Amino acid sequence: MKRHGKLKQIAAYLKSNKIAAVILMVFVFIYLINSDIFLNIMSKKISLKNTAIAKLNGRINTIKKSTGSLSAEKRGLINIENQIKILRIKLKNAEIMLPKTFMISNLIKNISLNKPAENFSIENINFGTPAKYDSVTELPINISITGGFNKTVKFIKNVNSMKRIFTIDYVSIKASKKSFPDIKADIKGYVFAMDG
Predict the structure, then answer these.
(1) What is 104-194's CATH number?
(2) How far is Cα 9 from Cα 14, in angstroms, rounded to an integer?
(3) Which secondary-structure segment (H or E) carries 76?
(4) Of 65, 95, 160, 191, which residue is 20 to 30 A from 76 by alpha carbon distance?
(5) pLDDT value of residue 192
(6) Which pLDDT score is estimated for 95?
């Protein structure tokens, strides 16, 4: 009741005293303008902070992506390094398999050791003209053999897997005129030697 009465007194006072009402309205107007300006400034600051946070998030994502790609590149480089080590070992082994000269007598002996024991003969071993490539010399070789089919295949596999590098270019097979059902095969390939 007391509050209601006081409010009535203030309303009556403002009705009778218009200057006080105008001053009060001016204060209210100033308050509203100030609060509006304050809210605008705050919203601008908040939007600027949000923009800055978004930029920082973008930078963080970029850094994450670059570090992820860097670690992938690092793993790739480690793999390449391991592959190089393996290739170096293979190269050393290949160099062992490439003697300084062709050592023809040893080569013929190794080829002969791969021949099956029975019903098989090496009829001919011919060497062509050597050709040089960088630090390696290539010697063409033709081997003529006669024997059963299975023994011929076994001989070709054995020659192809000798310690000495021997590449088979092609094999021609036909029926043997001397001993049926044996076959005659001509093997053409290459052996290699290191220069120097």
Answers:
(1) 3.30.70.60
(2) 9
(3) helix 18-97
(4) 95
(5) 83
(6) 62
DSSP 117: S
Residue at token pair 């393996």: 86
**Tokens 């003529």 found at:** 144
Q: What is the pLDDT of residue 110?
A: 82
For residue 89 the two structure tokens come to 């070992």
Residue written as tokens 């030697």? Answer: 193
Which pLDDT does position 142 carry in this prediction?
92
Nearest to 101 by CA among 137, 133, 129, 125: 137
Q: Which of 129, 98, 96 is nearest to 195 (CA)?
A: 98
Break the chain into its structural domains and give their ranges: 1-97, 104-194
160-173 pLDDT, tens digit per residue, is: 877 777 888 888 88
Enumerate residue ranges in the chain where pLDDT < 50.
Answer: none
Query: Left, alpha or beta for 188 (phi > 0: left; psi -120 to 50: alpha)?
Result: beta
Structure tokens at 56: 């920082």
The distance of Cα 151 from the centroid of its chain, to the nearest Å, equals: 43
Taking the alpha carbons at both ends of the chain, their separation in whole angstroms is 122
Whether 145 and 155 have beta carbons less than 8 Å apart is answered as yes
CA–CA distance, 146 with 127 (Å, rounded to integer): 19
